[in-house]
Amino acid sequence: MTNQKVLFITGAGSGLGQLTAKRALAGGWAVAAMDINASGLAQLGESPKLLKLVVDITDPAAVEAAVDRCETELGPITRLTNAAAIMPLGLLNEQPRELIMMIMAINFGGMVNIVKIALPRLMTRGSGEFVSYASMAGHWPLIYMGAYNAAKHAVAAFTEVLYHETRNSGVRIVCVCPPIVATPLLEQAKGTVWPKIFNVFPPIAPEAVLDEIERILPGKALWVFPGPLTRVSWWLRRWIPGMLWWRVHQIEGI
Q1: Distance between CA 78 and CA 94 in Å, rounded?
Q2: Where is 190: in which H helix or E strand?
Q3: What percent of the chain has pLDDT over 70?
Q4: CA dist., res. 81 & res. 173, Å (int)
Q5: 52 occurs within a structural domain
Q6: Could you tell me if residue 180 is inside a domain?
Q7: What is the DSSP letter of 204?
Q8: Could you tell me if residue 1 is inside a domain?
């Protein structure tokens, strides 16, 4: 597949990851779609340009084998996207330690596995893109979201430093920080705790997130803030955190 654009994407079994994979396939890309959810990957259909990889992102050896298969069967990775995440919510004093550590292992540790295994290949070639999914939860902590916040804060910080460390490598890095997005990830929240603040800020469409990524990628910026109020929220969190926490307590009644 000479000159074939190749997307390697995690979290491709649902939500933003699945939509990204479908868009890429429709655009003529070859796609290595990775997820632990085999039934979700099956929803991508069949294509000679599609490689489905049922892999646990927390297993470095399995991730490395998946990256090897991608580059052997589809070609060198053009764009590496990490969209794998879980979002069970709850008060930190009530969430089991094992669940908190699992959130960190998947949302942050999984991203580290992908970066350490796949990114050096792009850097060796001096080209490619890395799309890292953090979240506005990686900048603005909220009641009931402490564990998820911690993992996404880690993703945002890691990606920001990586962006600056590799700025002369030829690899383009962006960190995507959407607000609440209308994807199946919200079902995990509904199955645990639904913060009242989620009713104040309705979810944006997943298509808006992908459109904003494509708009930002050709430039040089690190942050991708989809949605009309997201960048404003980021600035407010930086400059008046006390006022935001006052409002959060008022909304949640805690």
Answers
A1: 42
A2: helix 185-190
A3: 99
A4: 10
A5: yes
A6: yes
A7: B
A8: no
